[in-house]
Amino acid sequence: MLRLGIDIDGTVTAQDTFVPYLNESFQCAMTLEDMTEYDLTKLLNISHEEFWGWMNQHEPLIYKQAKPAKDAKEILDQMKHQHRLIYITARRQHHADITYEWFHKHHVHYDDIELVGGHHKLEAVQKHEIDVFFEDHHGNATMIAKEADIPVILFNSPYNQMPIDDRIIRVNNWQEASQWIKQYEQRLETAY
Question: Is 112 annotated as catalytic?
Fold first, then answer.
């Protein structure tokens, strides 16, 4: 049984979740493909203060209405029988109720959910003794892979195209992630 650490936004939820809200608020017509950096302040030409003001206002609704990523629920339903599913998210603590409600509404299984309130997930990864982490943020993936010395499955996106090291595995979807986990399990079994 593996202890799987799983990011929520852009990993379990669709990567383009924020796009319609940003387009409406900032009167633009961006697509996910336009988002070539995780930091949206440059793309929107606004300050960090303006961005976080916008986030504080819109986050609850966005998190509540987020759609699951394609095949995420089905794959996680399969994985829950063999592994522990521990969600470690950058969401802030005051979004705990909305987060749990979303999981219940979409019938997505969890063994634990930890809202760390920022992109420093390493402590939570170590606390939960995570074996493999699922992430969409390049910086998080790199830090976790290096510092925790575990494989990180990075969900491919226009905003995470920087180089990766050999502990990071790029996948395009949950089907590929599932396939990698199955092969990894087989390698571990053969090693014993």
Answer: no
Selecting among 7, 34, 71, 97, the annotated active-site residue is 7
145: domain range? 3-14+68-191
Please state the pTM of the whole predicted model: 0.95
Rounded distance between C-alpha atoms, residue 147 and residue 165, angstroms: 13
Average pLDDT over residues 22-45: 93
Kindly state whether residues 81 and 50 are assigned to the same domain.
no
9 is catalytic: yes
**If you average pLDDT over every residue of the chain, what do you get?**
96
| Whether residue 5 has pLDDT greater than 80 | yes
Listed in sequence order, the residues at least 6 apart from 170 whose beta carbon sits closer than 8 Å to its beta carbon are 154, 156, 164
Residue 136 and residue 180 in one domain: yes
Cβ–Cβ < 8 Å for 43, 37: yes
Q: 9, 77, 97, 165: which is the annotated catalytic residue?
A: 9
- Mean pLDDT, residues 46-54 taken together: 95
